Amino acid sequence: MERMTTQQQRPVAIWLYIGVGMLIIQVLLGGITRLTGSGLSITEWQPILGAFPPMNEAAWVKAFDKYKEIGQAKYLNNHFTLSDFKGIFFWEWLHRDWARLMGVVFAIGFVYFLIKRKIDRSMIKPMIILFLLGGLQGAIGWIMVQSGLNEDNLYVNHIRLAIHFLAALSLLVYVLWFALKLSTPVKEILIVPGLKKLNGWLLGLLTLQLFFGALMAGLHAALAASTWPDINGAWVPGNMFTQGSFLEDLTHNTQTIHFVHRNLAYLITILVVIWWWKAASETPEHSLLHRVRYLPLLLVLVQVLLGVLTLLGSQIHIPILQAILHQAVGMFLLLVLVWTYFLSYGKK
Questions:
Q1: How far apart are CA 120 and CA 143, in angstroms?
Q2: In this structure, how many other beta carbons lie within 10 angstroms of the beta carbon of residue 184?
Q3: How many CB atoms sit inside 10 A of residue 129's CB?
Q4: What angle do CA 292, 295, 298 make, to 5 degrees?
Q5: Per-residue pLDDT tens over the stretch 52-67
Q6: In sequence order, what are the residues at sequence separation of 6 or more whose Cβ sits closer than 8 angstroms to the Cβ of residue 236?
Q7: What's the pTM value of the predicted model, to 2 decimals?
């Protein structure tokens, strides 16, 4: 089959963009699941039967009894009633069922477009990679959950949580890139090597920043230093790098994680301002990249503001609304920077 034109590929691109939207919702559902402490409420992995919640009172009691066997229920939520359990069960169930729904949407779409001959040879390999990444993400999610299904841990392992989060973002970026390749006219892809290089650095730093954001969420680290612009009265916390090895401190010391996360935010903001200024001067005014150059700047400023509001509101509990908005805007910033990188990806 010959390679299709952008117009012919449009239906497949729309399907992929729907997938991007569904993945965004899934990541946010994961954030809510974490912030509400719901991630360990379902102690079994049942890909088919697990699509349905307990259907009667006896089934609910059985699920609750299984939850009572793990450390989180025994030592953190030992006051829970069945009604409380149903509250946390809902978010984990919705998170898993949304993943199942995505699998159905992608599978049905793939079969439909294959029958309609809307998928050419150049799309086969990316489609296979897409499904493999989706399956891998599900496996990583269950491995993460298993880390908390014991009597010793009250939550899932925060490193596994961060890996699960980054894997989800990798899948999200892959689907977006695939959709952009099918829907973006060649004339909109510019040759601007300097801008492209800076955009690449921003993507690398933002990925690192999102990893540290996941560590913040996994360790509830916002509660350890809810002041700004200082960190508990200091610009450089005195108890940084006190937990053995350098790597262990970076990933387990909440003060070190705070320091890195905050200062990466400042660095990324400065670099986005520089990128915006370069994009204004190095791209043609009629180009798409020139017209959307304000988006990264707007998003990074909103993201910093939401980060500050989340910290200041974390006196006793982490405010869920601010935290989820902070995660959402960080994700949108990643997607926009992927888009701008794609638009500057032209080669001589």
A1: 35
A2: 17
A3: 13
A4: 150
A5: 888 999 999 999 999 9
A6: 259
A7: 0.92
